[in-house]
Amino acid sequence: MTFTGRINARLHAKTVERLAREIDDLKKSIGEPLLAETAELNQLLNLFQPAYRFLKDKPELWQLQQKWGCPEIKPANLLGGWTGELPYCGTNAIRPFLREAIKAWAGEAVWPIGTPVSVQWTIHVNGQSFSLTHTSSEAWTGVQLEEILNMLYE
User: Fold this and answer.
1) Same structural domain for residues 83 and 50?
2) What's the domain range around 128?
3) How many structural domains are present in the chain?
4) Shortest CA distance to 85 belongs to which of 68, 102, 69, 66?
5) How far from 143 is each of 104, 147, 152, CA to CA, in Å?
6) What's the rounded mean pLDDT across residues 20-33?
7) Contact present, 109 and 142 (Cβ < 8 Å)
8) Quick one: residue 143, left, alpha or beta (phi over 0 = left, psi -120 to 50 = alpha)?
9) Does an H or E element contain 117, and which?
10) Given this model, what pLDDT does residue 39 score?
11) DSSP-based three-state secondary structure for 149
């Protein structure tokens, strides 16, 4: 059997909300404050990379840079030995800037409303169970099957 449809507003909103909740949950899960702050910043910087690629030519990014006093975004060596785009902001502005940039990106690009999806499954002969055989959507590129199912059935 195959289901073909589109991502609706409720599923999009749930996905965006879950992304924000995961950032907060990570910080809460670490008992030592300095480690929690470092882990949160690392996660925000990781999520900022696709957000930056999506927003870099859009006025929303420039508006956020102005709002938070982040005049430059340029490549830098980040935690874990990888290079990524890093906003240069005032001391207390980087976290709110990153959160708002990620929120702007997620609102437009994470599981966008109307994106076509297809899910195919096979019902076992006993009629009591099924196996998922295929999922397809541009919105799900690079997303693990378990994560897709968690969002669909959460």
Assistant:
1) yes
2) 2-6+112-153
3) 2
4) 102
5) 20, 7, 13
6) 86
7) no
8) beta
9) strand 116-123
10) 86
11) helix
What is the full DSSP assignment across 70-109? Answer: --EEEEEE-GGG-EEEEEE--TTTHHHHHHHHHHHHHHHH
Residue 67: pLDDT above 90? Answer: yes
Same-domain status, 17 and 64: yes
Q: Band the pLDDT of 102: cuts 50, 70, 90.
A: very high
Whole-angstrom Cα distance, residue 16 to residue 87? 22
pTM exceeding 0.90: no
Residue 79's pLDDT band, with cuts at 50, 70 and 90, is: low
**105 and 120 within one domain:** no
Contact present, 96 and 88 (Cβ < 8 Å): no
In the predicted model, what is the mean pLDDT of residues 89-106? 90
Report the greatest alpha carbon distance in the chain: 62
The structure tokens 């195919």 sit at 120
141: tokens are 């590129």
| pLDDT at residue number 121 | 85
Helix (H, G, I), strand (E, B) or coil at 18: helix
What the block records as the tokens of 126 is 């006993």
